[in-house]
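Feature request, filed as a ticket because there's no other form

It would be nice if the structure record came with a short human-readable summary line next to the tokens. Right now we just get the raw output. Example of a typical job, pasted below so the devs can see what we mean:
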Amino acid sequence: MATREQPDDVLILGSLLTETRNPASDQLDQLSTLDMLALINAEDAKVAAAVEAELGPIAQAVDTIAARFNEGGRLFYIGAGTSGRLGVLDASECPPTFSVAAGLVQGLIAGGDSALRLSSEHSEDSREEGARDLAKTGFGKLDTIVGIAASGRTPYVLGAMEYAKSLGALTVGLSCVPGSAVAHVAEIAITPATGPEVLTGSTRMKAGTATKLVLNMLSTGVMVRTGATYGNLMVNVRPTNAKLVDRAHRIIMEATGCNLAVATQLLTDSGDSVKTAIVMQKLVVSREAAEARLQAAGGVLAAALLLEP
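Raw output as currently delivered:
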């Protein structure tokens, strides 16, 4: 059963870095619109530096998650409110961007999918509910959980992380408060300290922006490390509509130097596989030979091109 915050918890919450008042914006409602927006923009400019300070643990997380992917593991984001929505957003973008299975990267939010549109504040107060929601996915030892909580103390997130830790899975904590409970539970703590918000306590602002940047790095970095790209080209793209067919043609052209007519034929001859098409063109081999190379290289295009005949 969910437990409500006690007065002591409220006092602790009010002292958190993300909840304190920002002196730069204490007269926010008295500023002209232009000055107000300039202030918000100036505060937002601090976010990139806060994330930069955490590149070390972000890189550690990317490499560790990628290694677990290669062993059959999956990645789960879990959070409440804005944090949960951002996790679900990043997870939902992975299949169309990298053509991976929908279950490989999953996002869980306190209160379930309805909380993506309608606020469900009470759901975040239960450790048990967080653990239960994660267990329902079949979460296992090879999987990774990224617990997301701007405050670093959301019970729903902590319960899920503690459950994951009990299984021996990798726990990553993403928060914006140094030394938080989420950071202490995590094996890898990522803590961009974005400071007080322009609108006191509104962590959908700087903290939310930092969270989005870090999640972009995690998912993109892991996909790069597991062979979903060739240089900066999305070679895993599936040409399922006109826009993606056009993108596939352009990727083949960029990677091989061929013209559009050749790229169009290659995509058809490869069975709509951009990677296979590139290997066919660059090494002048059949579709079957190209597919065999890719399989031997674990699907990594750069490695497939370097294999001995």
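Something like this underneath would help us a lot:
Residues 1-8 have pLDDT under 50 and may be disordered.
Strands lie at 75-79, 105-109, 144-148, 170-174, 188-190.
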